[in-house]
Amino acid sequence: MQGPGDIHRLREEISRLDGILGERTRFLEGRRQWLREQVASRVGRLRPLRRLSAEEMGAWLAGRSLAGVDGSCNLVGGSYPHYVAVMAAVGRTTRGEEAWAWEVWSPLDRDERLGEDADEMARRRALSALEARVAAQVLERYSPRLLLVDGPLVRLRIEAEQEWENLFAQARRRRTLPVGVIESVGTSVVASLLGEDLPPSWRGAFDRELLWGLLEPGELLTVEHPHRPGLRTCFMRAGRDPAPTGLDFPTMVPADENLDTVADVLYTLTPQGGRGIPLWIDLVDARVRLEDHVVRALVESGISRENWLRFLASRRERRPF
Predict the structure, then answer these.
(1) Are 72 and 86 contacting, i.e. CB atoms less than 8 angstroms apart?
(2) Which of 35, 55, 88, 287 is deepest in the core (most CB within 10 A)?
(3) Overall domain count for the chain
(4) Average model confidence (pLDDT) for the chain?
(5) Which of 236, 264, 234, 239 is CA-nearest to residue 251?
(6) Could you tell me which of 123, 57, 103 has the C-alpha nearest to residue 280?
(7) Is there a single domain that holds both residue 20 and residue 86?
(8) At residue 321, does pLDDT exceed 60?
Protein backbone atom coordinates (compact mmCIF):
# COMPACT_ATOMS: atom_id res chain seq x y z
CA MET A 1 0.00 0.00 0.00
CA GLN A 2 1.26 3.46 -0.91
CA GLY A 3 -1.04 5.68 1.09
CA PRO A 4 -4.55 6.54 2.34
CA GLY A 5 -5.97 6.38 -1.19
CA ASP A 6 -4.94 2.72 -1.55
CA ILE A 7 -6.50 1.86 1.82
CA HIS A 8 -9.75 3.54 0.73
CA ARG A 9 -9.84 1.52 -2.53
CA LEU A 10 -9.09 -1.66 -0.61
CA ARG A 11 -12.01 -0.99 1.72
CA GLU A 12 -14.25 -0.36 -1.27
CA GLU A 13 -13.32 -3.73 -2.76
CA ILE A 14 -13.99 -5.48 0.55
CA SER A 15 -17.33 -3.69 0.88
CA ARG A 16 -18.24 -4.73 -2.66
CA LEU A 17 -17.55 -8.37 -1.79
CA ASP A 18 -19.60 -8.03 1.39
CA GLY A 19 -22.50 -6.68 -0.65
CA ILE A 20 -22.37 -9.65 -3.04
CA LEU A 21 -22.31 -12.16 -0.17
CA GLY A 22 -25.12 -10.30 1.61
CA GLU A 23 -27.28 -10.38 -1.53
CA ARG A 24 -26.73 -14.13 -1.90
CA THR A 25 -27.61 -14.69 1.75
CA ARG A 26 -30.80 -12.61 1.60
CA PHE A 27 -31.91 -14.45 -1.53
CA LEU A 28 -31.62 -17.80 0.22
CA GLU A 29 -33.07 -16.66 3.55
CA GLY A 30 -36.20 -15.54 1.71
CA ARG A 31 -36.60 -19.11 0.46
CA ARG A 32 -35.68 -20.95 3.66
CA GLN A 33 -38.90 -22.99 3.86
CA TRP A 34 -38.64 -23.97 0.19
CA LEU A 35 -35.05 -25.10 0.72
CA ARG A 36 -35.98 -27.14 3.82
CA GLU A 37 -38.70 -28.89 1.83
CA GLN A 38 -36.27 -29.63 -1.01
CA VAL A 39 -33.69 -31.01 1.40
CA ALA A 40 -36.27 -33.18 3.19
CA SER A 41 -37.65 -34.63 -0.05
CA ARG A 42 -34.52 -34.95 -2.19
CA VAL A 43 -31.47 -35.06 0.07
CA GLY A 44 -32.37 -37.01 3.19
CA ARG A 45 -34.34 -37.31 6.39
CA LEU A 46 -34.73 -34.51 8.91
CA ARG A 47 -35.46 -35.43 12.50
CA PRO A 48 -35.13 -33.85 15.94
CA LEU A 49 -32.27 -35.06 18.12
CA ARG A 50 -32.78 -36.05 21.75
CA ARG A 51 -30.47 -35.55 24.73
CA LEU A 52 -30.10 -38.79 26.67
CA SER A 53 -30.27 -38.96 30.42
CA ALA A 54 -27.30 -40.21 32.44
CA GLU A 55 -29.14 -43.50 32.95
CA GLU A 56 -29.82 -43.89 29.22
CA MET A 57 -26.21 -43.07 28.37
CA GLY A 58 -24.94 -45.58 30.91
CA ALA A 59 -27.27 -48.26 29.58
CA TRP A 60 -26.14 -47.60 26.01
CA LEU A 61 -22.45 -47.78 26.94
CA ALA A 62 -23.08 -51.10 28.75
CA GLY A 63 -19.87 -50.85 30.73
CA ARG A 64 -17.73 -49.71 27.78
CA SER A 65 -16.09 -46.35 27.13
CA LEU A 66 -15.99 -43.67 24.45
CA ALA A 67 -12.72 -42.76 22.77
CA GLY A 68 -11.41 -39.94 20.64
CA VAL A 69 -8.36 -39.65 18.40
CA ASP A 70 -6.64 -36.58 17.03
CA GLY A 71 -3.27 -35.50 15.68
CA SER A 72 -1.12 -32.39 15.53
CA CYS A 73 1.78 -31.19 13.41
CA ASN A 74 4.17 -28.35 14.29
CA LEU A 75 6.70 -27.01 11.80
CA VAL A 76 9.99 -25.53 12.95
CA GLY A 77 12.45 -23.72 10.72
CA GLY A 78 12.04 -21.90 7.42
CA SER A 79 10.29 -22.62 4.15
CA TYR A 80 10.53 -25.87 2.17
CA PRO A 81 12.74 -27.85 2.39
CA HIS A 82 14.41 -26.24 5.40
CA TYR A 83 12.07 -27.31 8.19
CA VAL A 84 11.42 -30.06 10.71
CA ALA A 85 7.87 -31.22 11.48
CA VAL A 86 7.05 -32.87 14.80
CA MET A 87 3.86 -34.92 14.49
CA ALA A 88 1.91 -36.39 17.38
CA ALA A 89 -1.27 -38.47 17.63
CA VAL A 90 -3.20 -39.45 20.74
CA GLY A 91 -6.17 -41.67 21.41
CA ARG A 92 -7.91 -41.20 24.76
CA THR A 93 -10.90 -42.94 26.34
CA THR A 94 -13.39 -41.50 28.80
CA ARG A 95 -11.71 -43.68 31.44
CA GLY A 96 -8.44 -41.79 30.97
CA GLU A 97 -6.68 -44.58 29.05
CA GLU A 98 -4.33 -43.33 26.31
CA ALA A 99 -2.18 -44.36 23.38
CA TRP A 100 0.42 -42.01 21.85
CA ALA A 101 2.59 -41.99 18.74
CA TRP A 102 5.21 -39.52 17.49
CA GLU A 103 7.06 -38.93 14.25
CA VAL A 104 9.72 -36.46 13.09
CA TRP A 105 9.40 -35.45 9.44
CA SER A 106 11.78 -33.35 7.35
CA PRO A 107 12.50 -33.11 3.60
CA LEU A 108 16.16 -32.81 4.61
CA ASP A 109 16.02 -36.44 5.75
CA ARG A 110 15.18 -37.72 2.28
CA ASP A 111 17.47 -38.62 -0.59
CA GLU A 112 15.03 -37.18 -3.13
CA ARG A 113 13.38 -33.77 -2.89
CA LEU A 114 9.68 -34.13 -3.71
CA GLY A 115 8.90 -30.47 -4.29
CA GLU A 116 6.81 -28.31 -1.97
CA ASP A 117 3.31 -29.49 -2.99
CA ALA A 118 4.20 -33.19 -3.05
CA ASP A 119 6.01 -32.84 0.26
CA GLU A 120 2.95 -31.27 1.89
CA MET A 121 0.78 -34.14 0.66
CA ALA A 122 3.29 -36.73 1.88
CA ARG A 123 3.38 -35.04 5.28
CA ARG A 124 -0.42 -35.09 5.49
CA ARG A 125 -0.43 -38.79 4.62
CA ALA A 126 2.13 -39.46 7.34
CA LEU A 127 0.01 -37.68 9.94
CA SER A 128 -3.15 -39.53 8.87
CA ALA A 129 -1.29 -42.85 9.08
CA LEU A 130 -0.08 -41.93 12.57
CA GLU A 131 -3.64 -41.14 13.70
CA ALA A 132 -5.01 -44.38 12.20
CA ARG A 133 -2.32 -46.46 13.92
CA VAL A 134 -3.05 -44.85 17.29
CA ALA A 135 -6.79 -45.38 16.77
CA ALA A 136 -6.19 -49.08 16.07
CA GLN A 137 -4.10 -49.33 19.26
CA VAL A 138 -6.91 -47.79 21.30
CA LEU A 139 -9.39 -50.29 19.88
CA GLU A 140 -7.09 -53.23 20.49
CA ARG A 141 -6.23 -52.27 24.07
CA TYR A 142 -9.45 -50.70 25.39
CA SER A 143 -12.32 -51.77 23.10
CA PRO A 144 -14.47 -48.60 23.34
CA ARG A 145 -18.01 -48.68 22.00
CA LEU A 146 -17.59 -45.47 20.00
CA LEU A 147 -14.44 -44.00 18.43
CA LEU A 148 -14.61 -40.30 17.54
CA VAL A 149 -12.17 -39.21 14.84
CA ASP A 150 -11.46 -35.51 14.38
CA GLY A 151 -12.23 -34.99 10.70
CA PRO A 152 -13.83 -37.07 7.94
CA LEU A 153 -13.22 -40.82 7.85
CA VAL A 154 -12.65 -40.56 4.12
CA ARG A 155 -9.46 -38.61 4.87
CA LEU A 156 -7.99 -41.65 6.62
CA ARG A 157 -9.20 -43.98 3.90
CA ILE A 158 -7.59 -41.90 1.14
CA GLU A 159 -4.43 -40.70 2.87
CA ALA A 160 -3.63 -43.86 4.88
CA GLU A 161 -5.32 -46.73 3.07
CA GLN A 162 -3.39 -49.60 4.66
CA GLU A 163 -3.71 -48.20 8.19
CA TRP A 164 -7.41 -47.49 7.59
CA GLU A 165 -8.05 -51.09 6.53
CA ASN A 166 -6.34 -52.30 9.69
CA LEU A 167 -8.34 -49.85 11.82
CA PHE A 168 -11.62 -50.85 10.20
CA ALA A 169 -10.87 -54.56 10.64
CA GLN A 170 -10.05 -53.89 14.30
CA ALA A 171 -13.32 -51.98 14.69
CA ARG A 172 -15.30 -54.94 13.31
CA ARG A 173 -13.55 -57.36 15.68
CA ARG A 174 -14.09 -55.12 18.70
CA ARG A 175 -17.62 -54.10 17.68
CA THR A 176 -16.59 -50.46 17.85
CA LEU A 177 -18.23 -47.82 15.68
CA PRO A 178 -15.83 -45.21 14.23
CA VAL A 179 -17.41 -41.80 13.62
CA GLY A 180 -15.78 -38.91 11.79
CA VAL A 181 -16.70 -35.54 13.31
CA ILE A 182 -16.26 -32.77 10.75
CA GLU A 183 -16.09 -29.20 11.99
CA SER A 184 -15.20 -27.50 8.69
CA VAL A 185 -17.68 -29.07 6.30
CA GLY A 186 -16.21 -28.98 2.78
CA THR A 187 -18.59 -31.27 0.87
CA SER A 188 -21.24 -30.21 -1.66
CA VAL A 189 -23.80 -32.98 -1.20
CA VAL A 190 -26.88 -30.75 -1.03
CA ALA A 191 -25.93 -28.64 -4.06
CA SER A 192 -25.11 -31.72 -6.14
CA LEU A 193 -28.49 -33.32 -5.37
CA LEU A 194 -30.58 -30.16 -5.91
CA GLY A 195 -28.67 -29.25 -9.07
CA GLU A 196 -30.18 -26.62 -11.33
CA ASP A 197 -33.15 -26.03 -9.02
CA LEU A 198 -30.79 -23.86 -7.04
CA PRO A 199 -30.13 -20.32 -8.27
CA PRO A 200 -26.90 -20.04 -10.30
CA SER A 201 -25.01 -18.27 -7.52
CA TRP A 202 -25.64 -21.23 -5.18
CA ARG A 203 -24.91 -24.13 -7.55
CA GLY A 204 -21.85 -25.98 -6.35
CA ALA A 205 -22.01 -24.31 -2.93
CA PHE A 206 -20.53 -26.15 0.02
CA ASP A 207 -22.89 -27.82 2.49
CA ARG A 208 -21.59 -25.43 5.17
CA GLU A 209 -23.06 -22.51 3.19
CA LEU A 210 -26.40 -24.06 2.24
CA LEU A 211 -27.09 -25.67 5.62
CA TRP A 212 -25.98 -22.62 7.65
CA GLY A 213 -29.00 -21.85 9.83
CA LEU A 214 -31.21 -24.16 7.74
CA LEU A 215 -31.31 -26.91 10.34
CA GLU A 216 -33.14 -26.15 13.53
CA PRO A 217 -31.16 -26.33 16.80
CA GLY A 218 -31.11 -29.98 17.83
CA GLU A 219 -31.88 -31.32 14.34
CA LEU A 220 -30.20 -34.03 12.26
CA LEU A 221 -30.10 -34.45 8.48
CA THR A 222 -29.34 -38.03 7.41
CA VAL A 223 -28.27 -38.08 3.76
CA GLU A 224 -30.10 -40.94 2.08
CA HIS A 225 -28.07 -40.88 -1.14
CA PRO A 226 -24.58 -42.41 -0.74
CA HIS A 227 -21.91 -40.18 -2.24
CA ARG A 228 -18.83 -41.83 -0.71
CA PRO A 229 -18.50 -45.61 -1.12
CA GLY A 230 -18.59 -47.38 2.23
CA LEU A 231 -19.61 -44.29 4.21
CA ARG A 232 -22.83 -42.57 5.28
CA THR A 233 -23.06 -38.85 5.96
CA CYS A 234 -25.17 -36.89 8.41
CA PHE A 235 -25.28 -33.22 9.37
CA MET A 236 -26.11 -32.09 12.89
CA ARG A 237 -26.92 -28.74 14.43
CA ALA A 238 -26.35 -29.30 18.10
CA GLY A 239 -27.07 -25.85 19.53
CA ARG A 240 -27.41 -22.17 18.82
CA ASP A 241 -24.41 -22.08 16.47
CA PRO A 242 -25.92 -22.03 12.94
CA ALA A 243 -23.03 -23.97 11.37
CA PRO A 244 -23.67 -27.65 10.58
CA THR A 245 -21.37 -30.36 11.94
CA GLY A 246 -20.69 -33.27 9.60
CA LEU A 247 -20.76 -36.89 10.80
CA ASP A 248 -19.26 -39.81 8.85
CA PHE A 249 -20.36 -43.39 9.62
CA PRO A 250 -19.28 -46.62 7.95
CA THR A 251 -22.15 -48.23 6.03
CA MET A 252 -21.27 -51.53 7.73
CA VAL A 253 -21.99 -51.06 11.43
CA PRO A 254 -22.29 -53.54 14.31
CA ALA A 255 -25.65 -55.32 14.21
CA ASP A 256 -26.70 -53.92 17.59
CA GLU A 257 -26.02 -50.29 16.63
CA ASN A 258 -28.72 -47.84 15.65
CA LEU A 259 -27.38 -44.71 13.96
CA ASP A 260 -30.25 -42.60 15.26
CA THR A 261 -29.28 -43.55 18.81
CA VAL A 262 -25.59 -42.89 18.06
CA ALA A 263 -26.53 -39.44 16.76
CA ASP A 264 -28.45 -38.80 19.99
CA VAL A 265 -25.33 -39.86 21.94
CA LEU A 266 -23.20 -37.37 20.00
CA TYR A 267 -25.82 -34.68 20.53
CA THR A 268 -25.78 -35.39 24.26
CA LEU A 269 -21.98 -35.04 24.29
CA THR A 270 -22.17 -31.60 22.61
CA PRO A 271 -22.59 -28.49 24.81
CA GLN A 272 -25.75 -26.65 23.81
CA GLY A 273 -24.09 -23.23 23.93
CA GLY A 274 -20.85 -24.35 22.30
CA ARG A 275 -19.67 -24.52 18.71
CA GLY A 276 -21.49 -27.73 17.82
CA ILE A 277 -18.67 -30.25 18.36
CA PRO A 278 -18.83 -33.16 20.87
CA LEU A 279 -16.86 -32.11 23.93
CA TRP A 280 -14.66 -35.21 23.91
CA ILE A 281 -13.19 -34.18 20.53
CA ASP A 282 -12.16 -30.82 21.98
CA LEU A 283 -10.63 -32.45 25.06
CA VAL A 284 -8.54 -34.83 22.94
CA ASP A 285 -7.54 -31.96 20.65
CA ALA A 286 -6.31 -29.96 23.64
CA ARG A 287 -4.38 -33.00 24.84
CA VAL A 288 -2.44 -33.52 21.59
CA ARG A 289 -1.86 -29.87 20.67
CA LEU A 290 1.74 -28.76 21.16
CA GLU A 291 2.87 -25.17 21.64
CA ASP A 292 5.18 -23.90 18.89
CA HIS A 293 7.78 -22.62 21.34
CA VAL A 294 7.92 -26.02 23.07
CA VAL A 295 8.49 -27.85 19.77
CA ARG A 296 11.09 -25.31 18.70
CA ALA A 297 12.96 -25.76 21.98
CA LEU A 298 12.82 -29.53 21.51
CA VAL A 299 14.27 -29.31 17.99
CA GLU A 300 16.92 -26.78 18.96
CA SER A 301 18.02 -29.00 21.83
CA GLY A 302 18.81 -31.83 19.44
CA ILE A 303 20.32 -29.90 16.51
CA SER A 304 23.77 -28.36 16.66
CA ARG A 305 23.97 -24.60 16.30
CA GLU A 306 25.88 -24.90 13.01
CA ASN A 307 23.31 -27.23 11.48
CA TRP A 308 20.47 -25.07 12.77
CA LEU A 309 21.89 -21.99 11.04
CA ARG A 310 22.84 -23.81 7.83
CA PHE A 311 19.69 -25.88 7.28
CA LEU A 312 16.79 -24.60 9.38
CA ALA A 313 17.09 -20.99 10.54
CA SER A 314 15.10 -18.43 8.61
CA ARG A 315 17.08 -15.33 7.66
CA ARG A 316 14.17 -13.30 8.94
CA GLU A 317 15.23 -14.31 12.44
CA ARG A 318 18.33 -12.16 12.00
CA ARG A 319 16.55 -9.02 10.91
CA PRO A 320 17.62 -6.03 13.02
CA PHE A 321 14.00 -4.85 13.37
Answers:
(1) no
(2) 88
(3) 2
(4) 90
(5) 234
(6) 57
(7) no
(8) no
